[in-house]
Amino acid sequence: MRLLIQRVSHASVKVQGQTIASIGKGLLILLGVGYGDGEEEAKFLAEKVANLRIFEDEQGKTNLSILDVKGEAIVVSQFTLYADTRKGRRPSFTDAALPDVARPLVDRFVELLRGYGVAAQSGQFGAHMLVEIHNDGPVTIWLEK
Length: 145
Prior knowledge:
The protein is α/β, with parallel strands linked by helices. It has a single domain, classed as 3-Layer(bba) Sandwich (D-tyrosyl-trna(Tyr) Deacylase, Chain: A), CATH 3.50.80.10.
């Protein structure tokens, strides 16, 4: 499972012109599920995200988690995080999990985040989405399990 986390001042997701998710201060999480991923990866990464200290405290140091700042999150499924571009010019996605495996794990990850107290929303699995990201910092972090 791979996550690309962006600290945001605002983020939203639209599908067919309709806003389906919108947050203020928090995290936009692009989530890719790989072949062989399961509950263990989802649990590990949800706990890591909930407690990752990437928000600034009063002294400007990154000492606060999304829970500390009462931030929100949007999780967007993105199989392209498993793109293999080593050969040719067209990415291969053979390392990404098939939709029938990936969809429940994306949903489970969101559920686990909520269990930690993160106000989490999600994009629409498999849909063409327009994702608006106001990256704050910018802060962008790659996590993998």
